[in-house]
Amino acid sequence: MSVLVYTESEEGKFKKAALEVASYAREVASKAGGSVTAVTFNAEDTSELGQYGVDKVLNIKNDKLSKFNAEAYADALKQAAEKEGSKVMVLSQSANSKYIAPLLAVQLNAGYAPNVVALPESTDPFIVKRSVFTNKAFNLLQINTEVKIVGVSQNAFGLKENQADATVEEFSPNLSEEDFSVNVESVDKATDKVTIADAEIIVSGGRGLKGPENWGMIEEMAEILGAATACSKPVSDMGWRPHSEHVGQTGKPVASNLYIAIGISGAIQHLAGVNAAKTKVVINNDPEAPFFKAADYGVVGDAFEVVPRLNEKLKEFKAKNA
Amino acid sequence: MKILVCISHVPDTTSKINFTDGDSKFDTAGVQFVINPNDEFGLTRAMWFKEKQGATVDVVNVGGTETEPTLRKALAIGADSAIRVDATPTDGFFVAKQLAKVAKEGNYDLIIAGRESIDYNGGMVPGMMAALMDANFVNTCISLEVEGDTATAIREIDGGKETLTAKLPLVIGGQKGLVHEKDLKIPNMRGIMQARKKPLNVVEAEDVSAQTETKKFEKPDPKGEVKLVDPDNLDELIDLLHNEAKAI
Ligand SMILES: Cc1cc2nc3c(=O)[nH]c(=O)nc-3n(C[C@H](O)[C@H](O)[C@H](O)COP(=O)(O)OP(=O)(O)OC[C@H]3O[C@@H](n4cnc5c(N)ncnc54)[C@H](O)[C@@H]3O)c2cc1C
Ligand SMILES: Nc1ncnc2c1ncn2[C@@H]1O[C@H](COP(=O)(O)O)[C@@H](O)[C@H]1O
Fold this sequence. Notes:
The complex is a heterodimer.
Chain A: E1 2-6, E2 9-10, E3 13-14, H1 16-32, E4 35-41, H2 47-50, E5 56-60, H3 70-84, E6 88-91, H4 95-107, E7 111-116, E8 122-123, E9 126-132, E10 137-143, E11 148-152, E12 167-170, E13 182-189, E14 201-205, H5 216-225, E15 228-231, H6 233-237, E16 258-262, H7 268-274, E17 279-284, H8 291-294, E18 297-300, H9 303-320
Parallel strand pairs in A: 1-4, 1-6, 4-5, 5-12, 6-11, 7-11, 14-15, 14-16, 16-17, 17-18
Antiparallel strand pairs in A: 2-3, 8-9, 9-10
Helix pairs in contact in A: 3-4, 5-9
Chain B: E1 2-6, E2 9-11, E3 19-20, E4 25-26, E5 33-35, H1 37-53, E6 56-63, H2 68-77, E7 81-86, H3 92-105, E8 110-114, H4 125-133, E9 136-147, E10 150-157, E11 160-167, E12 170-174, H5 189-197, E13 200-204, E14 212-218, E15 227-229, H6 234-244
Parallel strand pairs in B: 1-6, 1-8, 6-7, 7-13, 8-12, 9-12
Antiparallel strand pairs in B: 2-5, 3-4, 9-10, 10-11
Flavin-adenine dinucleotide binds at residues 206-208, 232-235, 248-251, 263-265, 267, 269-270, 273, 284-286, 289, 302-304 of chain A.
Pfam families (chain B): ETF (PF01012)
Protein name (chain B): Electron transfer flavoprotein subunit beta
InterPro entries (chain B): ETF_a/b_N, ETF_b, ETF_beta_N, Rossmann-like_a/b/a_fold
């Protein structure tokens, strides 16, 4: 049996999520007895995939696919799955993968499990554990179709090195004009900033910070830690920060290793979005703030005093541990 | 322009999540149900198309009679008519099949759904629906304009946004950003009165077999106590984060 994995790259380089889904696919293939084929789009050097257990790479080189296009990518992946006779397909839960997965599911007549947090409990029948109710619960889901699509939540599985000799094959799917009927006019992306989706660490600010002019210390902490910045919903509603930074049940879900919440009360809708973060730190001057019940570490104190001091200490720590 | 807004009926965001029947079913006892927040943004955007461009707006839900108050609320917000496909949703594919049929038969130009339902977080119904009806699809849509038969949409991507154009028919998976938070429509008295007279058509479901089935629900392990660190001893916090949590 072949497991197909979509390994996303950006400007030719693999994203961490790509290596994570490759690691996951390797374990599924080992469990069910089979090999792993990765599909890449315009990747320059695919050798890294071998370190994470990929046996074969189907490399698609096509200028028309230099910009992500959901339908065209889904069609290409479908053709790759058919060529390989893949019964399981693994994707990440990046914005692009979430866009593709349902299209692919219909084309391959495959059942799709999103937000999967662990390896399959069994592969026959195929049962996976996924998070539901915005991380307030889990669901054991059985996929009954012949072809299965698994969307693995970011950071849920991690990277597992597993050296394999990845052979590389050029692959040219047949794409039609129809695949490009949604036209990408322009992409507006900050390339120098860590995104919430990719971040290992997230520094997040709430209404307790009083105003957008006070975000300097949040950005400073993020810079020291190589973190992404985020915020609570009212902060983005008031326009202090961009909407794309809003985390929570109605915003972005967070699955980073570390989440530092500053001046955020910890309303249930906010916590729902950050439950999947591994370690949570809260800095709040109200010891009764609900976030303290959800956090691993807490500092009861005024953010305007604590954060600048913490930033100094983090700088020292980083200087020592560089 | 004919618009169809897909309305998912979900537990209010403050709901306690519990399960019954040996952890096989979501316990709805005492739970308040609301219009899925992502769909609320889409519905308000649809109202803008109605007011500014003379669009007609129908809303649809796949569900049992218990979802009718949610559909009535959508009518009170301003939708022209409602459709309920009478079935208990079994999985995303099942729902997408039902919705695609309604959308095709009704010749809708624009189908507005949400990025995801906040209950099962599937994030699959709009995309599956688009694929099933061979319509264009834009996910995580945060801005939408229509000029003649062409839509211009902005979608949120990881770390930025993308501007896309596509011909109708189009399905979107919408979210916050489609309209301003402060512009979200809430039903007023007049709307509620009018909603009572608007049509709510119940249609029979198509026979579709689900692709997936829930075996069991589980709750996360209870959390340990928070470790408090003195604000005058922040070295301890750094030490804990480095040595205990291995997070920095
Ligand atoms: C349908 C719905 C969906 C929602 N979805 C989301 C969502 O996705 N994400 C989200 O975040 N919210 C969401 N909310 C809103 C949520 O209910 C809360 O209102 C919101 O999270 C509160 O934001 P906050 O913690 O920044 O502000 P507040 O609740 O005002 O908390 C500010 C905190 O800062 C502390 N503080 C004040 N001054 C200082 C200081 N000097 N130093 C340190 N601490 C200080 C205070 O003690 C307080 O705890 C949703 C609400 C609804 C109804
Ligand atoms: N039972 C349903 N009835 C109508 N629309 C639905 C239903 N379930 C999901 N949708 C639509 O599909 C979107 C995404 O849902 P999901 O794929 O379940 O996360 C929702 O925001 C709704 O717009």
